[in-house]
Amino acid sequence: MALTEAMDGLHSGVALAVHSVLSIHSKARVVVVDFGNCVEPEILDHLFSHEPRVLVLSVRQCQYASGSTSRNKGRYSNVLSVDINCNIAESSHDYLTLVHQLLLPVIYEFGPQMVVMTAACEWNIYPAFLPNMAGLFLPVTSDRLVMAVEIDQQRSIVVNEGIVGALSTLLGRPYHPKMSQSESLRPEVCQTILEVMKAQQGNWKSLRYHALASLVTSSTGKQESLLPSHLQQQTIKPQEDALLKPKELECFKEGQSVCLVYSEAMKEHLNYADSTHPECPDRISCIFEQLCNFGIVERCQRLKAREATLQELERVHSSRHIKFMSGLQALKPSELHHLENSFDSIYLHRRTNRCALLAAGSILTAVDCVMSGSCQHGVAVVRPPGHHAERNNPCGFCFYNSVGVAAQHAVTSHHLQRVLVLDWDVHHGNGTQHMFESDPRVLYISIHRYDNGRFFPGSADANYNRVGLKKGKGFNINIPWNKGGMGDAEYLAAFLEVVLPVATEFNPQLVLISAGFDAAVGDPLGGCNVTPECYGHMTKFLTCVGDGRVIVALEGGYNLTSISYCMTLCAKALLGDPLPCLSGNLTPCQSAVDSLISVVGAHCKFWSSLNLKGKMVESPRKQASSISTQRSISSPTSSQAVDELAASLSQVSMAEATPRKIQDEEKKEEAPGGELEGACGGGHEDSATTLILSDCLGAQELYAVVPVSWCPHLEEVQPVPDGTLNTSSACEECYDTSENWCCLTCVVWEVCI
Ligand code: Q9C
Ligand code: ZN
C-alpha cells in the first residue's frame, strides 16, 4: 500500500490500521467513517476504492465549494461521499439525521466486523458529537469501534468533553450532555442526503427501500441549489458550562446504573378456567430466572415492588374503573367468570387487582429511581400487561395502563415536559394512545401489526393517519404493519427511518418502553420474527436519545423461552454490554416499506427530520391546535401534490394481494362495499380500478384524484352503515349525481396533459 505524501498523520494511521486488520483477518469487513476536512478529501477513497472489504463513508463540509459537489454522485460502490455545502459543525440535528437515515442503513447492510471513525480537528464539532457517534456506531459491530480523533489545542475544551463523553459511551454508559433545543435541519443537508441517497440507490438496497426513496426518485432535477445568505460561517465559542473537568462529568459517577423491579406476588393473577391461557404467571418468573442465570440481577439495583396509589391511578383512569377493580377481590370465581364476558379478551381472578396495582406501582418505582438520578435505566418485569387498558375499562389481558400511569406520573410528579413512550408490543396500545393523544408532552410511538385493521385490537385507531389531536397533533405515531412475518429488517428500518430521527428531535427527558415481546420469533400470537438481539439493539438505540434515561417495562409476549432471552438482551443493552451483531437479511420487505412511506407522509409536516424534502408546514412545538381550521395549510404546492402522489402510488403498487382498507370493526368479512377508505378518495373498489388508475398516471392522460394523507377529515371516516355503497346515487346534501365518495375539501386535483 502506498501512502501518499499529502496524507496527514491521522489518515495514514487509519489507513495502516485498516490494512493491518485486513492482512490478519482476510475475511474481515471494515467500515471507515471519515469526518474529515476539505484539504485532501479523496485520499482514503483512492486508497480503498478497489478494496471490497472496506467501505469508506466520508462526510465533509465544503462551505467554500459552490453548487453540489461531484463526489456526492458516487464513483465507487464502496465509497460513499457526503459533501455538504455549508457549515454544519454546530448542529447536532444535521449530523444525527445524516447518520440515522443515510450512514447507518448502509453500514448495517454492509455488516462490518469493525468500524473505524476518524474526526479531524478542523471541524468546530459540537460537544456531544463524539459520544453521539460512538453510541450509534457501537451496536453495529458488537462494540468493535475505533475512534481516531485529532486533537487541536485551541479547541481542547470542546474536544475534551467530547473525548471523555466518548470514552464513557465506549465503556457502556452513553453520555448525555444537555443538548440545545434542536434547530431545524439545514436545507443544504436535506438536499445532500437526498442527492447521495439517489446516487447510491444502485449500490445499497437499504437506500432503495428507504421510506424517502420514492420522494428521491420523483424529484429528479427539480431541486434547486439553495445557499441562503443567513447561513454564514460561524465560529463556535464553548459555553461556560462546557468547561467541565472530566472528573466532574456525570458519567464517572459511581454506583449501579440499572434498577430492576420484580415480585413473585404478580404471579397470583391467573385463569381459573383455562390454565393454558398465554398470559400466564410463569411469564415473569421465567424472565426473572433467566436474568439470574445470566448474572444480570446481581448487577442491577433491586427495587421493591409496590402498589400504585389511588391518586396515581386517577390521573389516567376513571374512579369507576378503579372501584370496579378493587371490588373484584370480594367476588366468587363463578361471578368473576361471568363478568369476563363484558370485556374483550379478559379473564378475572380475586387477586387481579392486587397484581395490576403491583405492575403499575413497580414501573412507578423505577421511574422515581431513574428520575432521582440514582440509576440511569430501569427494567420492570411485571404482569398483567397494561397498554390495552383504557381510562374506563380493561381490555386485551390488561387492567391498569401501567406505562400510561408511569408516563403521567413523570409529567405530573417529576414535571417532565417530554416523555417518549415507545411501544413495540406486536399489538397497538390503544389505551396509551387514547390517554395521551391530545398531550404534546407525551410522544407515543407504536410499532404493531395492523393487517389493514384486522389485527387485535382491530380498530382503525391504530393506523398511520392517527397523528394525535389538538395540541397533541404530531405526537402520536403509529407504524402499522399490514402483514405478519416482520422481523429484524423491518424493525431496524422502522428505527433508523422513523423512531430514531423523531425521538432525537423530540429530545425526551425519559423513555418508557412498552416492551411486549410478542413480535419475537416463536411467539404464538404475534406471527413475527424479531430476534432477541434486535430487541437489544432497539433498546441501545433508545439510550442514545434525549437524556438517555430508559425504562423497559414488560407488556405482552407469550413464548416463555423467547421473552426470557428478549428481556435479557434488553437488560444487557442497558448495562452497556456488547450486543451480538444483527445477522441475516436486513432488507425490509415491500409491505413494511409501504407502511414506513405512509408514516413519513403523515408525519413529515410535524417533524423536520422526516421532512428532507422541505414540506414542513409547522414545527410540532410551535404548531397550535389550529391545523385543521387553517385552510391555507390544506393547500399544498404542486410539488407536494406530486410527492403525495408518489407516496400513494407506491401504496397502490403493493395492493396486489391486499387492497387498502380499514376493516369494519363488526364485520370481519371482505365485502367490496365495506371498504371505508374511499371516503377520502384513496379507496379503489377493486384491484382492477387500481391498475387502471396507475396505468393512466403512467400514460399521463387523465385527471387523477389524489388523497392527501394529512386530510383532517380522515378521522371522521365511518363505516358504511349497511355495508354497501351505491356510488351512483345522488349526494344527500347537494343532490349532485357525480362521484360523491371523496372528501372534496381536501382532495388534490392533478391535471395531467
Ligand atoms: N379473537 C397483549 O399482548 N387476542 N395483549 C384476542 C380474539 C387478544 C394481547 C383474539 C390479544 C391481547 C398485552
Ligand atoms: Zn401484545
TrEMBL record:
Residues 658-671 have a biased composition (Basic and acidic residues). It catalyses: N(6)-acetyl-L-lysyl-[histone] + H2O = L-lysyl-[histone] + acetate. Signal peptide: none annotated. The keyword tRNA processing does not apply. The keyword ATP-binding does not apply. PROSITE patterns: ZF_UBP (PS50271). One of its GO terms (molecular function) is histone deacetylase activity, hydrolytic mechanism. Keywords: Hydrolase, Metal-binding, Nucleus, Zinc, Zinc-finger. Its main location: nucleus. InterPro entries: HDACs (IPR000286), His_deacetylse_dom (IPR023801), His_deacetylse_dom_sf (IPR037138), Ureohydrolase_dom_sf (IPR023696), Znf_RING/FYVE/PHD (IPR013083), Znf_UBP (IPR001607). Residues 709-753 form the UBP-type domain. Residues 655-680 are annotated as: Disordered. Gene3D superfamilies: Histone deacetylase domain, Zinc/RING finger domain, C3HC4 (zinc finger). GO terms for cellular component: histone deacetylase complex. GO terms for biological process: epigenetic regulation of gene expression. It is found in: Nucleus. Belongs to the histone deacetylase family. HD type 2 subfamily. PANTHER family: HISTONE DEACETYLASE 6, ISOFORM G, HISTONE DEACETYLASE HDAC1-RELATED. This is Histone deacetylase 6. It comes from Portunus trituberculatus.
